[in-house]
């Protein structure tokens, strides 16, 4: 960084280094998160697997930067070099902050963690125009009395062809974790989905709920194909187009 005189950025006292690598099988399972992401779609088809892995690192960097700007607790990007991402370390004295799955919280702390998570999901969706797409107790950390979000290389915009399905899956994971953890106030997965997205789907059962989600995705995909990639018809109640985030 000193050699490149990179904006005289302050390097954190402790850093985390994430090296992106994958097997061919993992690669095939994960490409759906990037090949339909309009931010990377045009480049995806022209790249070989090695360069696509670099794109994964770049995607995580962009998503973290977006989250950082919104004030969401997450690692700060220090440097991206090919398929290696250097970030601030969430923890202290080389001891990483525990995952929500691992930490023992009091009932009051658990309740606080739930409301923080709900707010973070709403911020992610409304302020960052992102869906985590792999949110669970395994990639939320508890540090300094706060929930921190990590692992966002797969995160997509709600206009992704499967963006709302990914959000529903996130809501299911979060809802089940906090309900099992004894948080009486924790919303069910369908109520949580509506609370995060503001879509207010009113289906009586999960099958109908998912059918409505898929119908919205199809409607949006058709709309995008006719009107351009940033036209997400379901994201605003007034029928106008959303103001999506520019990097």
Mean pLDDT: 85
Distance between the termini: 22 Å
**What is the count of β-strands?**
7
CATH architecture: Orthogonal Bundle
Could you say which overall geometry the principal axes of the C-alpha atoms support?
Answer: globular
Q: How are the secondary structure elements laid out?
A:
Blueprint: E1 15-19, H1 24-30, H2 32-35, H3 41-44, H4 49-69, E2 77-81, E3 84-88, E4 91-92, E5 95-96, H5 107-126, E6 140-143, E7 146-149, H6 163-180, H7 189-197, H8 206-227
Antiparallel strand pairs: 1-3, 2-3, 4-5, 6-7
Helix pairs in contact: 5-7, 6-7, 6-8
Q: What do these coordinates show?
A:
- It is a single chain.
- Helices cover 43% and strands 11% of the residues.
- The protein has 247 residues and is an alpha+beta fold.
- The chain has a single domain, classed as Transferase(Phosphotransferase) domain 1 (Transferase(Phosphotransferase), domain 1, Orthogonal Bundle), CATH 1.10.510.10.
- Strands 1-3-2 form a three-stranded antiparallel β-sheet, covered by helices on one side.
- A hairpin with a 2-residue loop joins β6 (140-143) and β7 (146-149).
- α6 (163-180) runs antiparallel to α8.
- It starts with 14 loop residues before the first strand and ends in a 20-residue tail after the last helix.
């Amino acid at each position: 960084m000193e050699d490149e005189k990179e904006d005289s950025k302050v390097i954190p006292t402790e850093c985390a280094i994430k090296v992106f690598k994958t097997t061919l099988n993992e690669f095939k399972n994960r490409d759906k998160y990037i090949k339909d992401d309009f931010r990377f779609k045009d480049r995806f088809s022209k790249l070989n697997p090695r360069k696509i892995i670099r794109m994964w690192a770049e995607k995580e960097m962009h998503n973290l930067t977006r989250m950082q700007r919104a004030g969401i607790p997450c690692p700060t990007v220090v440097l991206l070099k090919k398929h290696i991402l250097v970030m601030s370390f969430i923890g202290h004295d080389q001891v990483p902050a525990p995952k929500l799955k691992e930490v023992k919280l009091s009932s009051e702390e658990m309740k606080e963690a739930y409301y923080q998570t709900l707010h973070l999901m709403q911020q992610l969706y409304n302020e960052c125009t992102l869906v985590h797409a792999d949110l669970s107790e395994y990639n939320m950390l508890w540090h300094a009395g706060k929930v921190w979000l990590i692992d966002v290389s797969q995160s997509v915009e709600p206009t992704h062809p499967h963006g709302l399905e990914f959000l529903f899956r996130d809501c299911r994971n979060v809802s089940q974790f906090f309900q099992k953890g004894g948080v009486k106030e924790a919303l069910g997965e369908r109520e949580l989905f509506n609370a995060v997205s503001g879509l207010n789907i009113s289906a009586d059962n999960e099958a109908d709920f998912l059918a409505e989600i898929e119908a919205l995705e199809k409607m949006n995909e058709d709309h995008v194909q006719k009107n351009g990639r940033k036209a997400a018809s379901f994201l605003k109640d007034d029928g106008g187009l959303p103001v999506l985030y520019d990097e």
